[in-house]
Amino acid sequence: MKHPAPPSAPAFAGAHAKSYAEGAPRKVPGLAGLHRMTAMLLAERVPAQGHILVLGAGGGLELKALAEEHANWRFDGVDPSADMLAAAGQIAAPHIDRIALHQGYIDAAPEGPFDGAVCLLTLHFVPREQRLATLQQLRRRLAPGAPFVVAHISFSQTEPERSLWIARHVAFGAEPGTNLDAAREAIATRLHILSPEDEVALLEEAGFSGISLFYAGLSFRGWVAYA
Questions:
Q1: Between β-strands 147-153 and 116-120, what pairing exists: parallel, antiparallel or unpaired?
Q2: Measured between alpha carbons, how far is residue 17 from residues 23, 42, 125 in Å?
Q3: How far apart are CA 63 and CA 51, in angstroms?
Q4: pTM higher than 0.85 for the full model?
Q5: Looking at the DSSP assignment, which residues form a beta bridge with residue 55?
Q6: 105: closest CA among 135, 128, 129, 75?
Q7: CA dihedral defined by 61, 64, 69, 73, rounded to 10 degrees?
Q8: Coil, helix or strand for 115?
Q9: DSSP 3-state of 224
Q10: CA 120/CA 35 separation, integer angstroms
Q11: pLDDT digits (tens, 9 = 90+) for 114-134
């Protein structure tokens, strides 16, 4: 369930799944740093033998990074794309004995309680009307006080700022020969992008507290919150 197309789209099958590890660092500013910060923020409260839920685990980059940072953590990863889960299994293969992968959405995740949760580069695919329910289901799977680290595309939804941010987002991640007009249209119509203010309000409504912005990379924002 990853950038830049909805999880049901063919872009998340076959070749895209195999090439995700190469493309994501180019499209997401400071992706390696984002993974390191995520591991650090989780570790503030997650015990040495912690159990982490990863929503949108397809591709496996965050699974690999977190497993490398914390050798005794266990992970349950959820993603709707079988091909992306297969790619995750390959990317995180050295740690697969500590990883369980589940195909589906948040309702496919084990009930927990988990010591922490991660959702990176994913929620901008979830329609606004489904976002709250997704966050609520994730929240109830967490132990009291457990950290939740979330990051995805988020910027102002008023014009002209919205169009400007879409153009910046496309320009940053574009490969040579990309049809920029088509890419901007795809971002504008296929993703479900909210303003940072609406993101925080939804986290609060879902039952999270102590919400703090920790990451801002061009069109991406990341928050840490607590169950």
A1: parallel
A2: 10, 27, 16
A3: 12
A4: yes
A5: 78
A6: 135
A7: 120
A8: coil
A9: strand
A10: 9
A11: 999 999 999 999 999 999 999
223's enclosing H/E stretch is strand 220-226
| CA distance linking residue 96 with residue 75, whole number of Å | 9
Mean pLDDT for the stretch of residues 14-36? 80
Q: How far apart are alpha carbons 90 and 60 in whole angstroms?
A: 8
Query: Residues 106, 78: contact at Cβ < 8 Å?
Result: yes
Q: What angle do CA 209, 211, 215 make, to 5 degrees?
A: 160
The sign of the torsion formed by the CA atoms of 102, 198, 220, 176 equals positive
Q: Which of 164, 59, 197, 176 is nearest to 118 (CA)?
A: 59
Report which secondary-structure segment, H or E, holds 226.
strand 220-226
